[in-house]
Every structure is written in structure tokens, then in C-alpha cells.
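Data availability (excerpt). The following record was deposited with the supplementary files.
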Amino acid sequence: MLSALFGATLAVVASTAVGNEVRVEIARIGRGERPPDDEVRQQWAAVLHQARSRWRTTRGKAGRAHHDGES
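Predicted structure:
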């Protein structure tokens, strides 16, 4: 019962956050605002860099754990 309630609460909070972001973006589009293309590229590059860094860290930890288990 608690798990179901927690899951429902999580779904409500997540959908509220996503809905707010969509509402804000639609309002910006309606006003004709648009971020500069280079800003979008910079943000995307930062997201990719962070994801690749986390992937390398995770792979490194998994490799060390695998290597330590074989010894």
C-alpha cells in the first residue's frame, strides 16, 4: 500500500514538473522568444560531456570490480 502511494505521489510530482516546463516553453514560443543557436549547442555539448564522463566513471568502476573479483 505504501509503495503504491509513493509511486502515485512520485507520478504526480513528476507530471507537475514536466507540465510546468512545457507550459513555460509554450509561453516563450508564443511570445516569439528563442534562445540563440549557439546557446543551445553549448548546453547540448555540456549535457553530452557530463553523460560521457559518467559513463567512463561507471565503466571504470565496473572494470575494477570485475578485475578485483577475478584475483
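Summary of structural features: The chain is about 90% helix and 0% strand.
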